[in-house]
Amino acid sequence: MRRVSIFGATGSIGQNTIDLIARAPGEYQVVALTGASNIAQLARDARRLKAEVAVTAHDHLLEELRAALAGSGIEAAAGTAAVTEAAARPADWVMSAIVGAAGLAPGLTALEQGGTLALANKESLVCAGQLMLSTAKAHGARLLPVDSEHSAVFQALVGEDMGAVERVIITASGGAFRDWPIEDLAKATLAEASSHPNWDMGQRITIDSASMFNKAMELIETREYFAVAPQQIEVLIHPESMIHAMVGFRDGALMAHVGPADMRHAIGYALHWPERRDLPVDRLDLAQIGQLSFRAPCETRWPALRLAREVMETGGLAGAVFNAAKESALDAFIAEEIGFNEMAIVVEEVLTQMSATAGHIDATMTLDNVARVDHVARQTARAVIHSRAG
Ligand code: NDP
Ligand code: MG
Question: Taking residues 207-220, what's their average pLDDT?
């Protein structure tokens, strides 16, 4: 039996992962499931999958979790340290699907165990890509992409020589506001930004899709996974979300990955890799779909794309600053403290301020430095948000 753990089990990616695991109960021994606020779901899945341990990131929910697991024999634990400790339990395959920078420490700990880390948590690559990759290398661990675009690139590269790659194109649906008049974006509400035209995902990534911060993060993620230069990575608006990515080779060929907008494809590919197995996803009927469309992204509409390119240019811990500032700006938008367009303004201002001070972006990439810079960036973002709101 393969030993598997799921970090962020109660979320959108976590639940899709559980859906696949639960279809083949005899094949998997579930080690750890983690969540944060949703104790009922965490306990229900831990019982159903007979997990060894269930962990909530929130200390104050330990008693509630214990009560929900009473009589099951499943261990309960709480707190961020307990989440990271759970990643040290031996497992063959670990899903990293916590949302935000909180996924970094458990992801690194899982890599230190030398197994396979299926990575949905793109924030860890944006914050500390080189640290993730060097940790994987040092411990003989394997990092497999779960983000649909990166899974698509990974699949298009099977059997190919990286030296023959000219460019990597990641597609974007354009999110909730792709067809809005640009002058209306400033008035976009939280409810409007929280609905995605094609994908059913967690609220944060859905809003990040509308602002294109999600694609901005994915530009950086692409650079880290595939070691391509920033100029080799393109974003293409593709409203139907059927082609997830394309790889362009030196002979002019483009290899496109086409599939339904269902994350169980990318999760299942990472689960069964290097094999392909049956997956419960729709088969596309291209004759019925008829047409696929494409357009260039507009950087005036989506300044996040320009910011990501600047972050890649700067290097060092600029990604950690970018991610933390983005998370803070997103929190403020969700709390309705700032408007939709102000998210990018806040992130740009934090990057400018922190670039001006030595010891932040130019610090060595260690977990401690990433955590410190993340903290300063959030404080800086709060000050910027406060000054705008005031
Ligand atoms: P959700 O918001 O649906 O789920 C997030 C998960 O993380 C939940 O299990 C949540 O627990 C847990 N969590 C929240 N805060 C913390 C914390 N501070 N410490 C530990 N755990 C925490 O997110 P998604 O599933 O949408 O996304 C997960 C990751 O996958 C993100 O990095 C996202 O960018 C990436 N991703 C998601 C895709 C999707 O289709 N959803 C596609 C591609 C990438 P609880 O719910 O119990 O509070
Ligand atoms: Mg994606």
Answer: 97
